[in-house]
Amino acid sequence: MSKFQRFLLKRLAISVLLTLIAVSVIFVVLRLLPGSPFEALVTSGNLNQEQIDEIRAMYGLDQSIWVQYVNYLGSLLTFQFGYSILRSQPVWDVLEPRLINSLILLVPALVTTAILSSLLGMYAGWNRGSRLEKFSIVSTTLLRSTPVFITAIFFIIVFAYNLEIVPALGMRSIRATPDGYIETFASLDFLHHYILPFTVAVLYYSGDFLLLARNGVVEKRGSEFLKLHRAKGLTEMEQLARAGRNSMLPILTYFTLRLGMIFQGLILLEVVFSWPGIGRELVLAIQQQDYPLVQAAVFIMALAVILANLLADVLYAYFDPTVSTSGGGSA
Question: Keyword Transport on this protein (predicted)?
Answer without folding.
Answer: yes
